[in-house]
Amino acid sequence: MRRARGFTYLALLIFIAVMSFASVLTLEVAETSAQRSAEAELGGIGREFNRAFAAYYRLAPEGAVRFPSRLEDLLLDPRVPAKRRFLRRLYADPLSGRREWGTIPAPGGGIMGVYSLAKGTPRRHLGHLMPGPYPSAFQARGYAKWVFGYNPMAPATTQASAPVQR
Question: Which pLDDT score is estimated for 163?
């Protein structure tokens, strides 16, 4: 009888160890899945920013500023008297949860692109990025390498519809 109790205790310890290992694996898979989902959402939001910056630049009235001076200008174009919107709303960064974005200054003034301020290393590499060159002050790692916007100096065939790491 005493021997059976020892075996049961050992079996219980092994069972707890296996369940702990399975729990850790499950949590890791869930974390990876959540991060991939947030990265995919960031890619979709980035494509919206790409289109908005390109449209804002291309539809500039004669003599008007070519790039928005602030992100809110993409919501309602201040250069024309009629309502003209390039974005429906300023999106929150799905990785950080904040509505705060890093901005890429345009050569002639204004903002030509945005990037995520989230910390961490991306798990995925996306298709295409806003073509360079970027201002030399922009040297970043991680998600900040995923730049969304419009670069009029890049050939039209390389203009991006989705981001990629630089």
Answer: 43
Alpha carbon 152 to its chain centroid, in Å, reads 21
Q: In what order do the strands lie in the sheet with 111-115?
A: 102-105, 111-115, 147-149
Report residue 76 as tokens.
């309602």
* 160 within 8 A of 129, measured Cβ to Cβ: yes
> Mean pLDDT by 10-residue block, N- to C-terminus, for the chain (166 residues)?
72 92 89 86 91 92 86 92 92 91 90 90 61 44 82 66 39
CB atoms within 10 A of CB 147: 28
Question: In a 3-state reduction of DSSP, which class is residue 30?
Answer: helix
- How many helices (H) and strands (E) the chain has is answered by 1, 3
